[in-house]
Amino acid sequence: MTKRMLITGGAGFIGSNATHFFAARNWNITVLDNLSRSGADKNLQWLRDETTTFEFAQVDIRDRLAVDRVVAGGRFDAVIHLAAQVAVTTSVADPRTDFSVNALGTFNVLDAVRLYCPEAVFIFASTNKVYGNIVTAACELNGTRYAYANRPYGIGENESLDFLSPYGCSKGAADQYALDFARIYKIPATSFRQSCIYGPRQFGIEDQGWVAWFVIAAMLGRDITIFGDGKQVRDVLHVDDLLRAYEAAIRAPEKVAREAFNIGGGPHQIISLIDLIGRLENRLDRNIPLRWADWRPGDQHVYVSDIRKIQNTLDWKPEIGVTAGISQLIDWVGRNRSAF
């Protein structure tokens, strides 16, 4: 029997890739999205052009009754909750909207699952920002990159939560609600605290999706601003590897329920801002002019995920290396210049 899946934010970057991925695996997909994010309409059209079979509900997750109608009508076997306000800077400028989307919106989705399909595996796309600056992790400058002096494997799930920004607060509240609904209501819910995810169909902007934004701006001759000194480091994970982790979690609800997992490229897939600029200059065979500005609120000098827990729990590891993944993203942007 075909199983049913709800993907909130299903016309976004990760969501459109997830819709395509799971539809190809014979899931009956319902995409819920309000199409407010730049590029969502293009991703939705791409899904339709690819003849992927899915249902679409143009719904804002802040609308409780509309969310209830979709979930009650779907009786889903799995829910991947991706719909969110995704930028720290936007949360600082407009914390009320950030809260209403990320905290209240997630509560609306969770509560609808509790009422209408509590057996559904629920994956919440959380963020590394729930850990804040991680003051116990000593940071040092190692050449052109910041690095942890005392975290050789990166940041683990036992690290103290320290939300730091409105975005961290709203996503952190949602993260904890997902885990608590798993404890109290026995929903097989899990929280994936995601690091830097990148790949095709990512319409990155300056405030969010920096890998895609640098690629897009470099190829289209747009201004690139480096906030801070450019030596900030992230572990990056290709979206296809993330989707394999989602699939593994859905197949093993008893292993992931009530658990949080840090997920990213881990210590073997790290890159700094100026490292990426250098790669793009080599690929494009020209210098890329840069602007420089002060550090932004909540920006971590370094964040690297300790991915041993998810590796051990789900027998998963990243398969797409940084060089191959970025090359693929460059090729995708090149083929879709008119979309930006």
Give descriptors for this structure.
single chain, 340 residues, Rossmann fold, seven-stranded parallel sheet, 15 strands, 41% helix
Describe this structure in words.
The protein has about 350 residues and is α/β, with parallel strands linked by helices. It has one domain (about 5-340): Rossmann fold. The protein has helices at about 15-25, 40-50, 65-75, 90-95, 95-115, 165-185, 210-220, 240-250, 255, 275-285, 310-315, 320-335; strands at about 5-10, 30-35, 55-60, 80, 120-125, 140, 145-150, 190-195, 195-200, 225, 235-240, 260-265, 270, 290-295, 300-305. The chain has a 7-stranded parallel β-sheet, with helices on both faces. Strands 9, 11, 13 and 15 form a 4-stranded mixed β-sheet that branches. Strand 6 and strand 7 form a beta hairpin. The protein is globular and about 55 Å long.
Compact description:
The protein has helices at 13-23, 40-49, 64-74, 88-93, 95-116, 166-185, 210-220, 239-251, 253-256, 273-284, 308-314, 322-335; strands at residues 4-8, 28-33, 54-58, 78-81, 121-127, 139-142, 145-148, 189-194, 196-198, 224-227, 233-238, 260-263, 270-272, 290-293, 302-303. It has 340 residues and is of the alpha/beta class.
Strand content: 15-25%
Low-confidence stretches: none
Numbering strands along the chain, what is their spatial order in the largest sheet? 3-2-1-4-5-8-12
> Span from first to last CA?
40 Å
CATH class: Alpha Beta
Rounded to an integer in angstroms, the radius of gyration calculated over CA atoms is: 19 Å
Alpha-beta classification: alpha/beta
Helix content: 40-55%
Let me know the CATH homologous superfamily: NAD(P)-binding Rossmann-like Domain
Instruction: Using the 3D structure, state the CATH architecture.
Output: 3-Layer(aba) Sandwich
Number of helices, counting only DSSP H or I runs of 4 residues or more: 12
* CATH level 3 topology: Rossmann fold
The ordered H/E elements are EHEHEHEHHEEEHEEHEEHHEEHEEHH
Number of domains: 1
Number of strands: 15
